[in-house]
Amino acid sequence: MKGIVLYILLLLTCSSTFAQKDKIERIWYNEEKTVKIQIFKAADGIFYGKIIWMVRPLEADGKIKLDKLNPDHKAKTQPILNSVILKGFTRSATDTSMYENGTVYSPANGKTYCGVIIHRGKELKLRGYFCGFSILGKSWICPLAE
Hints:
The protein is built from one helix and eight strands; from the N terminus they run αββββββββ. By secondary structure, it is mainly beta. It has one domain: Lipocalin, CATH 2.40.128.520.
């Protein structure tokens, strides 16, 4: 009997040591399904997203697409593939499906926006807006990729 109790306690202890992933820690398409973004949680509990796949990772001349429009001079020579475009998101204290206080970087225009992510099952609603002016922005629906 003691052996069974010890075995059950060991199983419970081992299973609780595995970190449980958050519901947005997945791979998501952009709205056009031309890019896949992997959202992950850093050790500090903050959420980030990086581009892990692109339909067209190369320019017409066969060279890797670089982040040419980035205002940071050093970043202009970096590939768009594997770049972190979602930064600093934290889960809302009042709405567990909302992640806020982050930024969204757009390689298409080199601009960074304030952002909010809302989890909707197999979709994310990503809202990027001019910081301080949440009505001036755009929303995208990002379907689950994997």
